[in-house]
Queue: 2 jobs
Job 1
Amino acid sequence: TWANLGLQDSASPLMEQLIFFHDHALLILVMITVLVGYLMFMLFFNKYVNRFLLHGQLIEMIWTILPAIILLFIAFPSLRLLYLLDEINEPSVTLKSIGHQWYWSYEYSDFNNIEFDSYMIPTNELTTDGFRLLDVDNRIVLPMNSQIRILVTAADVIHSWTIPALGVKVDGTPGRLNQTNFF
């Protein structure tokens, strides 16, 4: 819906993990921002100077090691998620997607001679319940609850093939074949 502050609902387990990581990292950043804001606010009204706070190896070690530990709390879940996103399981269907300047071409590699082009529907031909700049004349049909492999490339310029609810975004580059998967 419009004016939502959160991410849209997930349609795959990996997107749920991405949303959890987003919330985890955001909580850490909010805590850091509140702490630094409180310390800066208190410095404006503090008249006293602590000479041990200005010069001391202990405090310098603390404000060097503490941010490193906080970064580890962000880095380890991020690395785990990156490896999960890149893991390729045994796919039940493989779809090849070729980006052209104004349309996409699709080929179901597991079946013989199933390929089609998908053009965007012009705004003046949309129905009342259609989505402007999103609806196409030929949609992809994929099975539910199956491992799907997507091979993405482009014929002319760089394109981006994405389904936000599944947590999938792949760039189609001419002369390069990129691969991703989703469930």
Note: The first strand starts at residue 93 and ends at 99.
Job 2
Amino acid sequence: FVCLFLFSRSNAKLVAPLGCLVSRQKHTLPDLPYDYAALEPHINAEIMQLHHSKHHATYVNNLNVAEEKYKEALAKGDVTTQVSLQPALKFNGGGHINHSIFWTNLSPNGGGEPKGELMEAIKRDFGSFANFKEKLTAVSVGVQGSGWGWLGYNKEQGRLQIAACANQDPLQGTTGLIPLLGIDVWEHAYYLQYKNVRPDYLKAIWNVINWENVSSRYATCKK
């Protein structure tokens, strides 16, 4: 009975871990908590539909295939195949984890500023909300090629931290930071509406950030 721990540190209450490869349920595409058009005019319905039903669905499907192959290799004691499957598990597993967080980080009732403990932590660690917003935007704009900008929680140091991850690298699995807010800067997240002008997309996305969700994640990871 062997478990894959590559992504199992993800918060189980918010995103299901990949879990065990023997006797497990297949991963499924999570439903969006709002309609595809709900985030307009900031992110249009066509982008949301393609992003969710095509791109995220592909990560889920490919993750299931990779895990099945891994399970077979594990049963055979085929270490070479197990090693060769790690990039597919990381990419597709990360894509599934990242997008499962991303959808809940957005809301048609989002925008504005956070309140309570999260706001106090942002002021403590970044000086002000304006400074935090500027830094996360700059890090996200600066991602070369495809990737993500993140607000994460450093549990060892007890503070918030901004980071960028390439491609679909999952924040916690690659940096140890617990993900609170992720901004997808792959072109499929914005190109149909904002073309190649990533800064315009990043300016718009702050209008739909679900601070209640981010605050809930922060409260959970502090326990």
Note: The chain has two domains: 45-105, 116-222.
